[in-house]
Write a structure and sequence with these properties.
The chain is of the alpha/beta class and about 260 residues long. The chain is built from eleven helices and five strands, in the order ααααααααββαβααββ. It starts with 9 loop residues before the first helix and ends with a strand.
């Protein structure tokens, strides 16, 4: 799987919050207009639904699960307090701008998926200035980078001229990391036990498989599959397929295989 963990709104919704704030800067100190009935119902209903969702679901990834609510919640905020004391205050818009700026800062540097090249910045700081604090921070960013791209070691081992690659993984074992960046190579699923079928139809000579994937797809253990279809293991990799940031990594064997 691809690690998302505590991922929140993301850069798209964060930028939307900033745009909404910018559009309302001319309204600072002015009375906000009444919303029409339809918008009022949608605004209230979206907050009721969101709060109900929070009360019914207990998850450490709630910020990601609730992401579909964010556009409605954000769009409703400027009109939620019309004709109230906050509407006439010059303090609230400034506080809102600071909050949105803080969100933008997190989007730029958050270890989960930073916009800025934090790894390069921290490596330069560590190598040039021998900064111990920068080295500690670098370790955290490298940890999160590994969670986001747990198949980088396999991708690096694939020959550059080997564009189509076969794949056989189980549930929670995704081939996403093998074709990063988008369109780098084509990944074809092994749909039959004999990989030569895929070689004939797609000109595939290598495949990435897992023990659980072979068992789930073909109903036989990996060792028996290798022997029965004369498949050779080229290289073995240890992969953290569970991708849980709050626990020790659980490593599984992934195999790069070929056949004659």
């Amino acid at each position: 799987m691809v690690y998302e963990g505590f991922a929140g709104p993301g850069i798209g919704l964060a930028l939307m919050m900033l745009v909404i704030t910018a559009l309302h800067l001319p309204l600072i100190g002015k009375r906000a207009p009444y919303p029409n009935l339809f918008f009022g119902v949608v605004a209230v209903a979206s907050w009721i639904a969101f709060l109900t969702c929070l009360s019914m679901i207990s998850s450490d990834a709630m910020s990601r699960v609730a992401a579909p609510y964010y556009p409605l919640l954000i769009a409703a905020l400027p009109w939620m307090t019309w004709r109230g004391p906050w509407d006439r205050s010059r303090i609230l818009p400034g506080v809102g701008i600071l909050v949105y700026a803080g969100v933008l800062l997190l989007v730029l540097i958050a270890p989960i998926r930073p916009v800025l090249p934090m790894l390069s910045i921290l490596r330069y700081q560590t190598n040039q200035h021998h900064d111990g604090e920068a080295n500690s921070t670098l370790a955290k960013y490298e940890f999160w980078t590994g969670l986001r791209d747990n198949l980088s070691q396999i991708r690096a081992a694939l020959p550059a001229n080997e564009e189509p690659v076969g794949y056989a993984g189980a549930a929670r074992e995704t081939s996403y990391g093998l074709w990063k960046p988008l369109g780098l190579r084509k990944i074809f699923e092994l749909e039959t036990p004999d990989p030569r079928d895929l070689e004939k139809s797609r000109n595939v000579h290598l495949a990435v498989v897992t023990e659980r994937g072979v068992q789930a797809r073909f109903g036989i253990p990996l060792g028996e599959w290798l022997q029965r279809y004369n498949v050779q293991v080229v290289q073995t990799f240890k992969v953290d397929a569970d991708l849980t940031a709050s626990a020790e990594p659980h490593l599984y064997d992934w195999f790069l295989v070929t056949w004659k």
